[in-house]
Amino acid sequence: MIGRARRRAVSILVLLAFMASAAIVAEAAKKTVIVEVHGRARYEGSKGKTIIEGGVTIQYDDTVIVAASAVMDNAAETAKLSGGVTLTQQDVTVTAREMDVDLKKDSAEVRGNVKLEKREEQAEKDESGKPRISIVTVTCDTLNISTKTQNFAARGSVLITKDAQKAQAQKADYDNAQKELVLEGSVFIEDEGDKSIRCDRATLYTDKELVEAEGQPVVITFEVEE
Amino acid sequence: MDPRIVRRVSAFIALVLACLYIYAFVLNEPPDGEGESSGDANSPTSELLFEGVSIEGRSDGERAWRISASHVGLKDEDKRIEIGEIMHGEIYREDEVYLSFKASKGIFHTGPGRLFLSGGVDVYSEDRKLLSTDELEWTPGDSMVVIPGPAEIMTEQGVVSADSLQVDVASDEICASGNLTIHEGFGGRDIVMKGGEIRFDPDSNSFEAWGGTRIEFEIGDDD
User: What pTM, to 2 d.p., does this model score?
Assistant: First the structure.
């Protein structure tokens, strides 16, 4: 009799714990979006658009997007921003001519004079024992970035600089967790001292001075002191 | 007993009674009609009470409003007309019905020519319910309908709550002040518009905001 009552009590506790954790997960998945309209906004209904002109700032989580104008799709929860756009999230800043933001998917696609700057802590320490900071810059034609993971995919005339290192490729895919930037298509990497690598595929690490080159052939050029 | 003492006591009692009479019935005389039954307790206090009537207000010679109510009381002293249970009212623009309404109570102040409506005020535009509120004030002279308290705007796509509203009868504009909540306005969730100036266009069912407006809404999974 006592055993049955205890089992029932444990079952209820487990159920309550499950319900509480489900509620916390649901709450965590929600986020508040704040749109500051500096000029004029026109809201055309829940199935229409919200048109903003004269300056807009959109904020959600730790992401801040500033643009001259925006057209938001009220049903699809997306926004097209134009007239010069800046996205800032933690240590990443992206500037471009225009941007499509999917607020549900936490992603943004930017086009036109795209420039991404990422402030990266290096594995290497400076003289005071603190991690050295490098600025990684990516310019390209189009860039897709996840504001959840900070992973990005750069396409078209990709140019990457990090300290004295410069790299060119047709496309680049970045994994923020691994700090890996995978370059593909006519890859050319230049380093200080006229060292260079030509290959089909290369992996750069944004937090350390390491390049892995792949493909047939890999051509490495460097100067030899005579 | 000494007859002189009896006379003096009698004179004193007579004097006290006379003073009480003067105090009670001369100095504190009740006004006419007070204490008499005032009839129906729900009827407005009035000098003249009409039941089941229509009244019409005019501004600069033009018809400004017309009201059909269950009872109307005229109170000349306060220069006001108390209107009870307004079954149908009309606000006119250029001699044509612009908005119609119903309300529990109305007071028309004849001096400034101002009409107050209160208690479940519903405003209609061409038979479509446009606004709902508890208080509304209208001065035909300046063509402005003022809703000081919370109001709901009925749009084709849902209900919008506003802290306060102003309807400009002349220019056909509805302006909101304070917070404006568009229910299920973005991705099925509520939008709150704050600050700046916000205008509702009933024809296009759209809102326009300018002058530093903040729009807030939630996104993400809620299931």
Answer: 0.76
